[in-house]
Every structure is written in structure tokens, then in C-alpha cells.
Amino acid sequence: MTEPTVVPTAAPTAAPTGHLFGVGVGPGDPELLTFKARRVIGACDVVAHFAARNRPGNAWAIVEPLIEPHQRVLRLEYPVTTDAVERAGYEQAIAAFYDHAAEQVASELDTGCDVAVVCEGDPFFYGSYMYLHHRLAHRYPSTVVPGVTSVSAAAAAAGQPLVSLQESLTILPGVLAPDVLKEALAGVDAAVVMKVGRHLADVREALASAGLADQAWYVERASGAGERILPLADTDGVDAPYFSLVLVPGAGLAHRYPDRR
User: Fold this and answer.
1) pLDDT tens for residues 164-207?
2) Percentages helix, strand, coil for the chain, rounded to the nearest 5?
3) What is the tens place of the pLDDT at every residue in 61-89?
């Protein structure tokens, strides 16, 4: 009796997933959106964006005119802000939020949809997207599209070259403890203090302690609606928003070409 031929069963193949894009959309001016960012956003099935409660979201304000009717929008809403809770509570709440946001994006990717997560500025420069990238990029194909940073936009708006020749640039978050900030600013060639917000007085004091206050510039909402530029010395009484920074330009050019100031 001839034994039946056994035909091996092909192993099931996993359904293809969507592609994850982290897209930097620049600091505020829609004209600073790159050609690549526009192309990627337009090609994706889903456009996801971060937003604070009861606010449209900075990245969304930039890209909303580009969204077509067939595209789906995924709003990722922050549950808290740093102003609302103590630091430890904030860290726990925001970690849980990013976990949930990653699950939401993963659900779209698992259906085969490409997802563009738009992020103001650059995704890997203090950008919210990086927290999703950390949670998802090892599971899905991913691409990061860089964007113009607020640092570049602020320096351009203020007309202040940041670094030249052999100077180095130090970038610091404004939420650092005042003593830590003072120590970090001591001896810098040039510096940027990011996301100043309610810490403006501490930043001003730290720069004064380092002897840098007179050459520093305050910029809020660089390149966007409501942009404001002031010498740091003129910021007493300013209610600084979260998206504000302080520039300390290097003195290399002025020292090398003193007759061109």
C-alpha cells in the first residue's frame, strides 16, 4: 500500500504592519515645514498629534491645513501639566500617558496603516515623539523626519549668531534647580536655556550670577504667532509661556571683528 504524500504546510506569515513616522514640523511658522515633512504627512493614513487638555496643540496648528478628508486624526491628549502636580506625580502620570499613547498608535500600525506622529520642532530634540519611538521603534518599521528647532528659529528672529569659530554651545532645560543651573552656566561660550516658562526669574538670576545676563536675549514662541523678543534685562514682569527660551550668544565674532558690531 502506497503511503499518502504529506505536503508540508507553509508557516503562516505575519500580516504586514504600518510604518511609524516621527515628523518634525518646526517651531511654529508653517513655511518652516520641510518638503519631506509635507510629503510624509500627506502619504500617511493616520496623523497623530499631542495636545494639552482644552488646547488644539502646537504641532496640530501647523499641519491642520494639510490634512485631507480621507486621513484619520489621532489626538493624544496630555492628562496633566507640570504646573498642575508635583514633580514625582507628574513623572508617573506622564509615563502612563506615553504607554497608553503608544498602545493607541500601535493599534493603528497593526491594521497596516502608516502613522505620522507630528511633533513641533525636531522629534529628537526635546520632542514628545521620542517617547513613542522608544516604546515602538523596535516593534515596527520607523523613520524620523527632522525639523527646524526653536533654537534655530529664536536665534534667527533675534538676529543673534549663536556660536562661531571654536566656541561650544551648551543647551539646558529651564526646569533645572537654580543652583544646578548656575553651576552649568559658569564658563560657557554660549548657551540656550529651553522651556523657561515659570522659571524665568530663576534663569535670569542664574545668568546674572554667571555674568551673562547683559548679553542674553529672551524669545517666546519663536517664528509663531505671538513671537516676542526682548533683552533678558527687560523681562521683569513677563509671564513667560512654556515655549520660551533664553539665548546667550557667543562673543567670538564680536571679539574677532570688533569694528563690525
Assistant:
1) 999 999 999 999 999 999 999 999 999 999 999 999 999 999 99
2) 35, 20, 45
3) 999 999 999 999 999 999 876 554 556 67
Q: Mean pLDDT by 10-residue block, N- to C-terminus, for the chain (261 residues)?
A: 60 79 97 98 98 91 97 93 61 93 98 98 97 98 98 97 94 95 96 96 96 96 95 96 96 64 55
Task: Indicate whether this model's pTM tops 0.85.
Answer: yes
From first CA to last CA, the distance across the chain in angstroms is 101
Q: Is 214 exposed, middle or buried (0-12, 13-18, 19+ CB in 10 A)?
A: exposed
Q: Would you kindly state where each structural domain of the chain is located, as residue ranges?
A: 20-148, 151-256
101: Cβ–Cβ under 8 A, 6 or more apart, which residues? 50, 76, 131, 132
Give Cβ neighbours of residue 2 (< 8 Å, ≥ 6 apart): none
CATH superfamily of 151-256: Tetrapyrrole methylase, C-terminal domain (3.30.950.10)
Alpha helical stretches, state H, the chain: 35-43, 58-63, 87-110, 129-136, 150-158, 178-185, 200-209, 252-256
Using alpha carbons, list the distances in angstroms from residue 7 to 2, 4, 10: 15, 9, 9
CATH class given for the domain over 20-148: alpha beta
Q: In what order do the strands lie in the sheet with 244-248?
A: 169-173, 190-194, 244-248, 217-220, 228-231
